Amino acid sequence: MTRLALALLLVTLIHQGCFHFQVEAGDGFIRTRGVHFLLNGSPYYANGFNAYWLMYTASDPSQRPKVSAAFREAASHGLTVARTWAFSDGGYRPLQYSPGSYNEQMFKGLDFVIAEARSYGIKLILSFANNYDSFGGKQQYVSWARSRGQYLSSDDDFFRHPVVKGYFKNHIKTVLYRYNSFTGIHYKDDPTIMAWELMNEPRCTSDPSGRTIQAWIAEMASFVKTIDRNHLLEAGLEGFYGPSTPQRNSLNPGLKIGTDFIANNRIPGIDFATVHAYPDQW
């Protein structure tokens, strides 16, 4: 399901036994306590929208007024959160040309998005990668590894192969440590960002047992939290049940995609759950 604009993103808080945060009054970061979001110690209610195109558009300075207009309109309607991409891998106008090589113009576009969101009081959920081919996706990471002599049998090796996982971890690290050219704040220290998302709609159809995705989320969540304890983290799941709750599998729309909504969201370091609802499709 690639039509992000049609997705209704629902978030659900989950209580974890690990990665507890100290709530600092006035620091501006979104935290959790039990099953509630908090902002500066008070309840916070997310009301937001999807806009995958923000960085891509803002990378052209002449087009930045479109981003400003989107945030201004959103704020005027009481929207408080925007979810967007922090990736564009390979292809035309990429953020990441090749593993570890970045397009500064595109990164400055993301810098602008974060700075502009801040000026309108809008928090951001930033996604690190795409399951699908749009803007590169997992297939681009696999292609990079193949071009460097690695044997990979399918795009799902994104979740398994150590070289590919190393590429992805490097991208996460690069984004977290990015110094914003507009605000002078490293991304990992910026309270404008509400949360990070590991991937837009991860799927691993080659392993419907769910073990591959479970292990990948656990590994990547731990990696993110070793660098950034300020921000919340979510996996980017659509919400499909899996082997841990077989009695609920009949509620899925006929898909076995290697995810497990309950088990995946119980992983330490995952702070809240997401559901992507496509009422035009099912």
Overview of the structural elements:
- The protein is an alpha/beta fold and 282 residues long.
- The chain has one domain: TIM Barrel (Alpha-Beta Barrel).
- 29% of the residues lie in helices and 17% in strands.
- The protein has 7 helices and 12 strands.
- It has helices at residues 54-58, 64-76, 104-119, 137-147, 162-176, 211-227, 261-265; strands at 8-13, 30-33, 36-39, 42-43, 48-50, 81-85, 96-98, 101-102, 123-127, 193-197, 232-234, 272-277.
- The strands form 4 sheets. A 5-stranded parallel β-sheet has the order 5-6-9-10-11, with helices on one face. The protein has a 3-stranded antiparallel β-sheet with strand order 2-3-4, with no helix packed on it. A two-stranded antiparallel sheet has the order 1-12.
- α4 (137-147) crosses α5 and α5 runs parallel beside α6 (211-227).
- The longest helix has 17 residues, at 211-227.
- It is globular, with a radius of gyration of 18 Å.
- The N and C termini lie close together (11 Å).
- 43% of the residues are buried.
Query: Would you report the number of β strands?
Result: 12
Report the β-strand fraction as a percent range: 15-25%
pLDDT under 50 segments (min length 5)? 1-7, 15-23
* Strand ordering within the main sheet: 5-6-9-10-11
- Average the pLDDT over all residues and give the rounded result: 92
Main beta-sheet strand count, sense and barrel state: 5 strands, parallel
H-E string:
EEEEEHHEEEHEHHEHEHE
- CATH architecture classification: Alpha-Beta Barrel
